[in-house]
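Throughout our pipeline, every protein is held as a single compact record rather than as scattered files. The record that follows is passed on verbatim for readers who wish to inspect the format:
___
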Amino acid sequence: MDLIHKDESYELIRAFFEVRNEIGPGFLEEVYQQSLKHEPGLRKIPFVENPKLEVRYKGALLEKGYEPDFVCHSKIIVELKTVKLLDDPHRPKAFNNLKL
């Protein structure tokens, strides 16, 4: 897989696996999000939790923006999901993330 920000992405993936291995499966997204607030800090990964991102349409600022779970390194959007399979109900949000 070709990643745009390869080093930063692998750094984040290692942090995600550390959280998953430490607390295990079966929790709600909020538990993983709270855990992930600590792991990037331990690894010195710059991140912002729940930033409010502007969305524009033809130059006009829309009232409804976008609020991902994290933005890391000021360029990688992290949206947490606790599902067995990323299927149809989750795809629209995933595609929105890719457009940003």
